Structures are given as C-alpha cells and as structure tokens.
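pinned: reference chain
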Amino acid sequence: MKYIVVLGDGMADYPIEELGGKTPLEAAFKPNMDAMAGAGTLGLVKTIPDGLPAGSDTANLSVLGYDPRKYYSGRSPLEAASMGIELKENDVAFRCNFVTLSEDGIYEEKTMLDHSAGEITSEEAEILLQEVNRHFADEKIRFYPGVGYRHLLVWNGAPEKWSLTPPHDILGRPVAGYLPSGQEADTVLSMMRKSAEFLSGHPVNRERIARGLSPANSIWIWGEGKKPQLPSFSNKYGLRGGVISAVDLIRGIGICAGMEVLEVPGATGNLQTNYTGKAEKAVAALKAGLDFVYIHIEAPDECGHKQERDNKIKAIELIDELVVATLREQLALLREPYRMMILPDHATPLALRTHTADPVPFLIYDSTSKAARNSRGYNEEEARRTGIYIDEGHTLLGRILARDTGGI
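pinned: its structure tokens
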C-alpha cells in the first residue's frame, strides 16, 4: 500500500454571497476530487487544538500526526531546519517578512498593505536582506535569506516570551495595535522602524515602484521559537516518508521528522507553482521506494490572504486538474493499491484574509474500496453532512496508515 496526502493550504472557506452562497471549494470545477468523494470517505477534522495559534505550523504538524500541544515550539525553528541553519540551545529564531506598509505618517500610523511585498522575488529580497544585515547584524543577531518574502532572524540569547503578530493577520489595518511587546520588544520594534527608513528609498524598491509593483518597505518580525524535537516519521509509522513543498515551514517539519525533502523545479509557493511537477515527483518517489508522500500546495492560502476570490477558485481547480488527476492516472499504472487523503490544513476565509481554527473537510480515497458513497462532491457542507468529526486532528493520519481506517 502507498500513501499520499494532498494538502491545499488554506483551501477551506465560508459561503460567499457573490458565489450564490457557495464556498470556493463548492464553486470550483474539480471533477477528480468530486469523483473520489463519491467513492471515498468525507468528514471534518479539527487540526488546531484549542489555545494554539491558527497557523500552518500547528495545523500541518497535526495533519502529519504530531500533536502540536506536545511538539509545537514555534514556527521559525522549523523554517530554520529547512534553510540549513543549525540553532544553538540558546538561539531563538524569528520569522522576518518583507512587507508593504503605507507611506503616510510615523511608523505606528502606517497600514499593513501586503504581507508579501507584492510577492517579491528571492533575488530582490536577498539584496535587501544584505542591507538589513548591514544595519542590524552583530555577534548575537543575524538575518538569513529564505524564499520570496519569507526570511529568518536568529537571535542568540533572546527572551522566549513575546507577543508578536503575523502580518497576514492584520492586512488592511493600522499596525498601531499589533506592534511587538515582550521583555526586549523595543529592540525588535526599533529594527522594524529603522528598516522602513532605509528600505523605502533602496534601488530595488525604486525599481519595483517604477514597474508598478509593491515595495518591500519594511521588515516585520514574528513567529518566534526554539529548536523542536520531533520523533522520526519512520519510527512513528514504520514507513519511509517524503515531503514536497516550496515553503520552508513544511520542508522544515519534514526534515525535523526525518523525512526526505523532494525537490521540484518551478515550485514557487504561489499560484504559478509547478503543480504537475509536484505530482510527478511524488509518483517517482513512491516508485523508488518511499511509502508515503506529503504534497503541500500554498496557492489557495496566498489567494485567501489577498482576497483574490477568482484566483482561489482557480488554485483549487489547478490542484484538481494537475495534481490529483496526474496522481490518479500515474498511480493506476503502478498496479499497487494506494490511499490518498485530500484536505486543507486550516481555513483562510476570503472575508477575513487570515487563518481560522474552524474544522476542515477531509477526503480519504482507497483504491481497493468498491463501496459507493452518497456524496455529491468534496466540500465543507458535504463533509459536515456525513456526521464524521475527528476532534483530535493529529490522530487522523494514523487511522489512514493503519491496516484499516479505524472505522472512518
């Protein structure tokens, strides 16, 4: 038996009036997911335990079978693992976004316009991060380049208790009520303020503005944490696992769990990612001996944050057409049974532009099952209608990887 998870980040949503009361999952043309729902099992799963942040970090830990209440130690250390940064015992890692703030007034009066600085390229961002390091790096503090707008700050000896807000949680809002607080918050806030002074006029940003693009005119620091300790996936489940993602967070979870990180050219973490390449890489890895592959696609989440309704629907349709369809076709040629699970990690409602902790719909398809289900497709309402609800999200994967699905 082979196992595949297709994770559409932020794919779940709320009903939208302009879509006739449908969610993007209901409105999307996704014949492959819907056909699998007709022959599979639908339900709702709570991926984010009460009291923990509604983030991709906690949610993906749950989906991969790790209880966030036990193993979550912050987002950034997971990203550090993907970036090859070895954290010392006394290091605290922070996520550092390049963001676009409004240009008006003092820093506290600015508005968060874009958490991704117009999806700035990695090449542009690396140049800007060199300037950030030139101003702020010392024997304790250093910034490390990541992918696109996503970067890392490592601070040796930093306090562990902070109140820091993800920038995608405050899109369209003044930043005044969301600035850092904590024991050394002034250090972080000072770096953010000063970055706005020297980044605004940087040649990279002047060139972006000339091309009609959003400037990366500030850094935004959040997502603190220390090095995690995850038991290996192979010891936990007795399977060789791999992960496919363009996002350092997901790759880092895989690395910390001892899984193989599978590289896919053209995987970007946005709507223009290499969907087909991810599916083909997964099948090739299964052919080569892996038992389990986790395919993460960021696009629906990015579209949710940007309130791009049509693009969110398009992202779901591309996942169906280029990922799920490719998997079904190529897995059939393997002549080996498989189970596939399709789900979001969390909802990213277009109306809110941020993550929520709402239970999300999951679909389990077993290629050996002949039972027909009374399902009209894969979406939130159909999953709710089944009455199947998994309250402990980290237990779901174990049920699928067992010899039977534990009654699901």
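why pinned: Residues 165 and 222 are 6 Å apart (CA to CA). The chain has two domains: 2-72+229-401, 82-225.
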